Predict the 3D structure of the following.
Amino acid sequence: MTDKERQPVKIHIVVPITSDQFNEQIELEARSFLGTEVELEVSHLQAGPASIESFYDEVLAGPQIVAEVAKAAGNGADAVFITCFGDPAVPAAREIVDIPVVGGFEPAIATALTLGERFSVVTVLKNVTPMISGLIARMGVASRLATIEVIDTPVLELHDGDSLLKSLFEASCRAIETGGADVLVLGCTGMLGVAATLQEKLEAELVRVPVVDPTGASLGLLTTLQSMALKPSRKTYMPPPPKT
């Protein structure tokens, strides 16, 4: 084994908002999935929207997200997680760095497809449902989608754990009983630390269905990609042509 292979994996998490209010909580959540053997760094944006809840927000955040990814790669990161379910600027970031980059959407949906026939996404606001629908169509999994449920809670107000769990449970019951979902996907990476509790509550009061946490799915995928020495395809993610 070479010295490079003995070095710990270094994952950088980009929080695509202009506040550090989630940084510590996200790092704790990430540690619960990664353990101590992975080197972890977390950064947020210095400019852009307060949160990403629309296509407009995504466009505003894009340049800063790409800059943070480039900075992380330049500082030796082995992989980057852009912690947003909308996968903002993920394709652009893959064009400019030579390491794996994921958001919350693709890994969570890919995980859900291995756990049941039909999945529902439980997300924050109606504003983001067109974004999620577009991502689902692009991924080619619309036939496996049961429903998209909303809890009518903005991203920056997800800090009340009891209220969040109550809203998620009600939306999840709708998805399962009315929508026919076999698997649930939390449709916001700000829904921190509730997936396991929600899954236990559903099993105790309704039925056992998996609840996929996008943070856990994304970090797990990144460690797998890094261990297999896999990087984004240069046939898809070609470096941008130089311009003046």
The first strand starts at residue 10 and ends at 15. The chain is about 45% helix and 15% strand. The mean pLDDT is 95.
